[in-house]
Design brief:
disordered C terminus; mainly alpha
Length: about 100
């Protein structure tokens, strides 16, 4: 299973460096992007920031961040899009299955 956190931190760090943004600023931008551009609903900047720092988040929010990563790679014409998309979906599905099994044990 692939962890999408390294992709997230890599993208955030590149955007922060290129634009001289703080972590709070990039998390707010991602939050607005997920809500307005991807139309996937609300995710707070503090949730995104927590994920960046290694905190666990809900599978629903993980899926939103994964979709944002997919969108970022698509928008920036990266060659590794299909691999990333497949792994993000697989990772999210595995997480959902894990929590579902754990919840009913």
């Amino acid at each position: 299973m692939l962890d999408i956190r390294p992709f997230t931190t890599d993208i955030f760090d590149r955007i922060k460096g290129a634009n001289d943004y703080s972590l709070d600023q990039i998390c707010a931008i991602v939050s607005v992007d997920i809500l307005s551009r991807l139309e996937m609903g609300v995710i707070g900047k503090d949730t995104i920031k927590g994920f960046y720092h290694g905190e666990n988040i809900s599978s629903k929010n993980l899926e939103k961040i994964g979709a944002w990563i997919d969108h970022y790679y698509l928008y920036h014409n990266r060659a590794d899009i299909p691999i990333l998309s497949r792994y993000c979906r697989s990772f999210c599905q595995s997480l959902v299955q894990y929590y579902h099994i754990k919840k009913y044990r």
